[in-house]
Write a structure and sequence with these properties.
The structure is a homodimer. The first copy, chain A, has about 160 residues and is α+β, with helices and mostly antiparallel strands. Chain A has a single domain (about 10-160), classed as Winged helix-like DNA-binding domain superfamily/Winged helix DNA-binding domain (Arc Repressor Mutant, subunit A). Helix content of chain A is about 45%, strand content about 15%. Chain A has a three-stranded mixed beta sheet. The first copy, chain A, has a two-stranded antiparallel ribbon with strand order 1-2. In chain A, α2 packs across α4 and α3 crosses α4 (about 70-85). At the A-B interface, α5 and β5 of A face α5 and β5 of B. The complex binds zinc ion (ZN) (4 copies). The first copy, chain A, binds a DNA duplex (30 and 30 nucleotides) through α4. Chains A, B: Keywords: Cytoplasm, DNA-binding, Iron, Metal-binding, Repressor, Transcription, Transcription regulation, Zinc. Chains A, B: Homodimer. Chains A, B: Pfam families: FUR.
DNA sequence: GGCATGATGTTATTTTATAACGTAGTCAGC
DNA sequence: GCTGACTACGTTATAAAATAACATCATGCC
């Protein structure tokens, strides 16, 4: 799965198309309105497997539309997408990334490569279990756990060992 | 230990004094210069067990000094303190908090109460172990894991059950 | 003292995010 | 169709968080 994030060995157009299809289905099911604008922002978030900043998305959007859009336009779309679980916000990067498993209940755990910038969503139950155990021991009620691990992905380790 | 973060039932002046003493010792040991300014910023970070923003600290600092300080003054001091492991930055809050165990090697794991704002540093090896296991399975080299769990502390659960 | 290094001061700017208010679609019910 | 409520979107201004570039000052070694 980490290999799948290497832009070189996977069909990323398929990633994008798939994400949009799932988003359409999920929103239809929920009666949420995935408008043209929101859908376009989602597509731009999925530009790559690197988290993207709101202003980078804004720039793309402006270029596509020919006219310059306002920051709020993007932030509002992102807010919707995050609420719907289609996109995650990476707190340590002030950036956004498409969710790898929308629909499933999870809070997002990521391995972020500091060399290539790719982020892989892991959502491993073992991490969540460890957090839940420790929280329970201390009587803390978990709402939203943030797990963002910085480091080096396999590919980048190979390049500079 | 979580009870110790309740401002009502602990001597927080002791927390502050203790943090400053340990900081003095650690910096002396390392030959790092804990200047008057840096020491004062550390003290201001320790104002409470709630993470504080750089600009909040800046305001306090200005008030104390009588003259208004520049943001960079605070950011530079914070950078030093974080490097020395005396302070952690909470990514999800853009805020800083005093380290509960300076000197020990760790990356900081926190339980952050959304009601009272207090943050407790946990640094539990089980979370770190789970992260390391999963990273190893994927060939990912861990550098700096960020774990920030939002939720409700015991005290705040009791208040509104 | 003279000099190198690191810390601080000063000013300006960048990046990220939100507030306030108005307009325009969308849809239900009549 | 029209009306009214609701939601989305546009526009402008502003706040909050962080950094850049350059000058000055302090510290400690030679
Ligand atoms: Zn892809
Ligand atoms: Zn996800
Ligand atoms: Zn205390
Ligand atoms: Zn710590």
């Amino acid at each position: 799965m980490p290999a799948a994030t290497n832009p070189a060995n996977h069909d990323h157009d398929h990633c994008i198309a798939d994400a949009l299809t799932r988003a359409d289905a999920l929103c239809a099911e929920r009666g949420a309105r995935l408008t043209a604008l929101r859908r376009q922002v989602l597509e731009l978030v999925w530009t790559s497997h690197r988290p993207r900043g709101a202003y980078a998305i804004l720039e793309d959007l402006s270029q596509r539309e020919g006219k310059s859009a306002a920051p709020l336009t993007v932030y509002r779309a992102l807010e919707f997408l995050v609420e719907q679980g289609l996109v995650h916000r990476l707190e340590s990067l002030n950036a956004y990334i498409g969710c790898a498993a929308p629909g499933a209940v999870h809070s997002g755990q990521f391995l972020v490569c500091e060399a290539c910038g790719n982020a892989v969503e892991i959502d491993d139950p073992r991490i969540r279990a460890a957090i839940d155990t420790i929280a329970a021991e201390r009587g803390f009620q978990v709402d939203r756990p943030t797990v963002e691990v910085r480091g080096r992905c396999t590919d980048c380790q190979e390049k500079t060992p």
